[in-house]
């Protein structure tokens, strides 16, 4: 089902989501992409349909592996300037991202105050309100005040009662010795994590610095981009976030220390009274997060294998697979030993 059809078929809200049948060519340079992008905006927002193209300006916000973010600024007839964010899906990313699920999630999340407001959809992307804030860099996430705020926001995110979502299962399998080896590792780590009884929450699943924005003047933090959002284990979302302290260079020597993690956990478990968290609760969530840290490495390793087969993007996915899988193996003995010792009492 097309994304636009999903939008039209949802009667859960009185708000009618704008939709367009247009598709944008993601291979175009920004100058070549600008005219069709303006056409798209005019198609979605009828009040702009008669404006001259010179009233529009387009700039790149960021370009990731799975999407491209563009800022479109429009000078309206009354002289006011408004901005929206246009997100273009990367080619073939629907093999690993369920876009229908993402659309449904964003509608509920934006209504709950998370991220940007969803304004419209088209065949290979969406339009959202523009957030006037800067994107964090990896070093920001370990700054104590920001780490505390991220923990509080993630607590709120995990506590919100969301809806039942479709689960994306990939049927693609690599019948290779390497895949069987990885499969055995997955089975082993699943058996261990099952013993932890980690809470299932609606998780972000990709809380890297690029998906956190901060308005410095208002000291307001935003969690954005929910394309991997789904029900998952609390420890996975936290352990995955900690892995992202390594930044885009994947320097896992920057993984947060135990003291830094305990600071985060206190503000996550009791945002209003962080210093009242018991040592018992701190130890439990420490074991949980650092065991699921291994799961995070396995997940992104498998993600890279799928992308290596399906994505036309020029990126060394196989190299990324080995980077994450090797880090999993490097951390496995220590993390599993701590978990087993904790479980044994």
Automatic annotation (TrEMBL):
EC number: 2.7.1.82
InterPro entries assigned to the protein according to its UniProt record, in alphabetical order: Kinase-like_dom_sf
Keyword vocabulary terms for this entry: Kinase, Transferase
Gene Ontology biological process terms from the UniProt entry: phosphatidylethanolamine biosynthetic process
Pathway annotation: Phospholipid metabolism; phosphatidylethanolamine biosynthesis; phosphatidylethanolamine from ethanolamine: step 1/3
A GO cellular component entry from the record: cytoplasm
Superkingdom assignment: Eukaryota
Listed SUPFAM superfamilies: Protein kinase-like (PK-like)
GO molecular function: ethanolamine kinase activity
Family: Belongs to the choline/ethanolamine kinase family.
Descriptive protein name: ethanolamine kinase
């Amino acid at each position: 089902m097309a994304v636009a059809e999903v939008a039209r078929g949802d009667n859960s809200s009185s708000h009618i989501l704008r939709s367009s049948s247009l598709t944008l060519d993601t291979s175009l340079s920004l100058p070549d992409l600008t005219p069709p992008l303006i056409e798209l905006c005019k198609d979605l927002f009828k009040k702009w349909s008669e404006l001259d193209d010179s009233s529009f300006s387009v700039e790149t916000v960021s370009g990731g592996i799975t999407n491209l973010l563009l800022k479109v600024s429009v000078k309206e007839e009354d002289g006011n300037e408004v901005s929206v964010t246009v997100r273009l899906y990367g080619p073939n990313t629907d093999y690993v991202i369920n876009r229908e699920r993402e659309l449904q999630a964003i509608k509920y999340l934006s209504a709950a105050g998370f991220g940007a407001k969803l304004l419209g959809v088209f065949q290979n992307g969406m339009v959202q309100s523009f957030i006037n804030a800067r994107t964090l860099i990896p070093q920001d996430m370990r700054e104590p005040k920001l780490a505390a705020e991220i923990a509080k926001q993630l607590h709120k995110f995990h506590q919100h009662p969301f809806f039942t979502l479709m689960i994306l299962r990939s049927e693609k399998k690599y019948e290779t010795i390497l895949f069987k080896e990885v499969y055995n590792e997955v089975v082993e780590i699943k058996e261990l994590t099952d013993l932890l009884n980690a809470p299932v929450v609606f998780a972000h699943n990709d809380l890297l610095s690029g998906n956190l924005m901060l308005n410095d003047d208002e000291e307001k933090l935003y969690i954005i981009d929910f394309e991997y959002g789904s029900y998952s284990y609390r420890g996975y979302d936290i352990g995955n976030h900690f892995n992202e302290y390594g930044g885009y260079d994947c320097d896992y020597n920057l993984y947060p220390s135990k003291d830094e993690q305990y600071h985060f956990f206190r503000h996550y478990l009791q945002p209003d009274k962080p210093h009242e968290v018991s040592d018992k609760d701190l130890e439990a969530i420490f074991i949980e997060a650092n065991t699921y840290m291994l799961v995070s490495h396995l997940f992104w390793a498998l993600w890279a294998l799928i992308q290596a087969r399906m994505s036309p993007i020029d990126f060394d996915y196989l190299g990324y697979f080995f980077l994450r899988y090797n880090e999993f193996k490097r951390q496995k003995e220590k993390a599993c030993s701590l978990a087993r010792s904790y479980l044994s009492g």
